[in-house]
User: What shape does this take?
Amino acid sequence: MSKKDNTIPDSEETIEKEYSILNLGPTHPATHGIFQNVLKMDGEIIHEAEPTVGYIHRAFEKLAERRPYNQITPITDRLNYCSSPINNIGWHMTVEKLIGCKVPKRVDYMRIVIMELARISDHLICNSVIGVDTGAMTGFLYIFQWREKIYDIYEGICGARLTTNIGRIGGFEREWSKDTWDKINSFVKEYPKALNEFANLLERNKIFMDRTINCGPISAKMALDYSFTGPNLRAAGVDYDVRVATPYSSYEDFDFIIPVGTAGDTYDRFMVRQEEMRQSLKIIEQAIKNMPKDEPFHADLPEFYLPPKEEVYNNMEALIYHFKIVMGETEVPKGEVYHAVEGGNGELGFYLVSDGGRTPYRLHFRRPCFIYYQAYPEMVKGIMLSDAIITMSSMNVIAGELDA
Amino acid sequence: MNEELFKKLAEKISAKFPDAIEASDIAYDFPAFTIKKESIHDVLSLLKEDEELNFHFLTDLTGFQTEDEKQLGVIYHLHNMMKNYRVRIRVFFDINKPEIPTATDIWPGANWMERETFDFYGVRFKGHPKLKRILNVDEMDIFPMRKEYPLEDQSRDDKSDKMFGR
Assistant: This one.
């Protein structure tokens, strides 16, 4: 063979280009959940991504058609399990809207405290995991004890930690104990310090910034086209927040800022979540300060709210309601209602159709994750595999919410 | 505000498509229109393209089955964020011929929502770029959210529930 033939041809025609197929997932430690992506790779560049979802599909919408209203709350826990109180309370408010119930201001404020704590825990997990995926384990290990403290607060209120089933239709099941209030107060007092330390680790860290700026960007136009909501949409520069656009649960009484980004990249998503945690703390402080005193912690809604045990034994009506609730025979009016709350990931909507029976005729969850994850193939096209991983974790795709 | 929006919507739709609206109502501050199957795509694009209404955001798209089990439906929730207009559009069609035009050309975000609706109700969206099952396995041959498929297997006799009459 002559020397000339041995040279490596450099023009495209002589080599047939071949893509390699890589299965990322279904169980991969870097995806934090059960997601499969079939990637068509050109070296380390992603040419095409094909997500497969549905690995933990549990047919919640079908299940809900057989369950009485108060028994659907535990289902909603399992949607976005990082911030289940928001899902629970969103569902309670949907039913309250359908039956036309007005809850006391105190319930609204208590709900806001819980929902904002849940938002903090959701964002805290997401942001610390972005750190882990970029190689900074410290922040994650450090900040996670604060999630633990939030879970202690949940535990004091409802007895559960992850799948909370918090509150009831119409309010809360009991008054919060002094211990719980102490825990909330000390969390609000001490968390900013921890958050600032966490921020010092990452926010202006050169390595982190180089790694995340311009990584997986999405334009505002495209984000809107793909029905993005929540921090991911705000990172792209659209100041849409359900709490402000359609205030629920007395959010109109509160003074807070909606942070927006500009580029919609991983860094912006991270920063938006950081700032939202600070704003959430501000909201909690206001809620504690302005908490109405001398109001009940639940609405007068005997058909959904279990009466105290002594009354069940001594009072006919209470016994009837107790029986009706436990057997799940409470009937609700006919109607069709859509109610949305600002979940950890965006607009969490409940579309509920009731035919007047004991169970919903149709219940649909508008799950923000499911809707924005469809833009993922377009977002990771042409970027490196390792960038695709942090794009996914910064979008905060939660398997439970994705698959319902 | 919602009554105004309701009137405005009714006017705009019926001006362009005189007999497209089958029914309309406003409940829980949410204007809702039932549109004829033939004009659903035109009405949706009108709602998006119209400068005043400009429903640029598809909040939700989901399937539905009517109580007589003879019709399927698709429910769209549209949103105009600038003016905070929201509207619900319903369309119903025969369960034996579940075919309507896709909305993916109006809102790309309809893609997975339509796939989900196809997966659970068997609604075939004409013109959808890739209409295949999304949450269920590809081999499944039923559409599980239809009312003809009860949650539990009704032929089972080991789980009689006489006490609670379910």
About this structure: Chain A touches chain B through 42 residues (CB under 8 Å). Residues 4-48 of chain A form one domain. Strands of chain A lie at 20-24, 36-42, 45-52, 335-342, 347-354, 362-366. Chain A has 17 helices and six strands.
